[in-house]
Structure formats: structure tokens, C-alpha cells
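Sanity check. The docking grid for heme C depends on where the pocket ends up, so I'm generating a full predicted complex first rather than guessing from homology. Inputs follow.
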Amino acid sequence: MRTTAIGIAFGATLAVAGCSAPAPQPTVETTAPAPAPAAPSYKPVVSLNDLMVNVVDSHSHEIWDAEDKGPVTKADWERLEHAAVVLATSGGLTAVSGNGPNDQRWTGQADWVKHSEALSTAGLATIQAVRGQDVAALRKAGDALVLTCIDCHREYKLEVPKVWSDHEKVH
Ligand code: HEC
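Predicted complex below; grid placement will be based on this.
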């Protein structure tokens, strides 16, 4: 009985002390933050045109072709997922452009990064549609994708392939 009472009192004292005592500071928080490592510099190894033809355009066509046919097999969806991931990633690459003779002058233009981000955003929507195996969402994502090409090309390339404007009209 007596032991129990002492035990409770002792426990209560500890609990109060525990609440009021400042928490010990981990030493790591008291030291100055380590300097951030220098951002790796990106050195383009292909031209923007190469990137457009072999990465952006080819994978976009896989998405647009699938909209018309409708992917059916597991292998179709897997191929589309590959294309969608490439497209979502490609905006980061177009943002820094390539090593063609005139490529680097684009990266400094006000809207260049905005257009590149739009490409990545459309790519992300495509990934979502593909992972959900949702054909209606895939069509919508494909329409959003073609708009990102048209917007940037109207500003920087000044020619919009006819196949895109047709696609824009159809959907
Ligand atoms: C951030 C701007 C930008 C976006 C977004 C963009 N392009 Fe381009 N694209 C360009 C520029 C600039 C060139 C011209 C490069 C050159 O002439 O060296 C080009 C060139 C091309 C070319 C090769 C030239 C031609 O007309 O045949 C293709 C194909 C192409 N783009 C397809 C696409 C497709 C498809 C999309 C959308 C999925 C797209 N581009 C999105 C800026 C963009």
C-alpha cells in the first residue's frame, strides 16, 4: 500500500518534470546547415530539333494513334505508359533546350519555360489516363498535348504541321 503510494507520487513527479523540462536538442540542429551542393550543370548533347523529332514527336504520335484505335491489350497500355513518361519528362529537356547552333537563345525567352512546363503537365495527365486505362481521359490528354505543341510552335517555330491543326479540329 505504502509502496504503491510512493510509486504513484514518484511517477507523477517524473511526468511533470518530463513535461516542463526542455527537450534535449539534437546536436545536428545546433550546427550551421551544411551548404547546399552546387547544382549540376546541364550540358545538352543533342539539338532541340533532334529532341523534338525523336523524343517529343514520336511519342506524341503513339498517344494520338492510340486515341483513334483504342488500346486493347496489356502490351498496348505498357507501350503507352512508356510514351507518356517520356513526354512528361521531355518538358524538362526542352526547357533547357539543346546544342543546335541557335538553341540556347530560346531558353532565355519569357515564355519558353512556360511552354515547356505545359508539355510536362500534359504528359502527366497522359500518364494518369494510361495508368487508369481510361480511354476518354487519354483522348482528353491527347487534345491537351497537341495544344502545347501548337502554342509553342506558333510563338517560336511559326509553322504548325497540318496534322496538328486537323487534330485540333477533330476533337
Ligand atoms: C517549348 C516549345 C516547344 C514545344 C512545347 C514543342 N515544340 Fe516542337 N519545336 C519547337 C521549336 C523551336 C522547333 C524548331 C527547332 C529547330 O528548328 O531547330 C521545334 C521542332 C519540332 C519538330 C521538327 C521540325 C518540324 O516542324 O518538323 C517537330 C516534329 C516538333 N517540333 C514536334 C512537336 C510536338 C509533336 C510537340 C508537342 C507534343 C512539340 N513539338 C512541342 C518548340 C517546341
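Relevant for the grid: Residues 48-49, 52-53, 56-57, 60, 94, 100, 112, 115-116, 119, 145, 148-149, 152-153, 156-157, 161 surround heme C (CB under 6 Å).
Also worth noting: The two ends are 84 Å apart (CA to CA).
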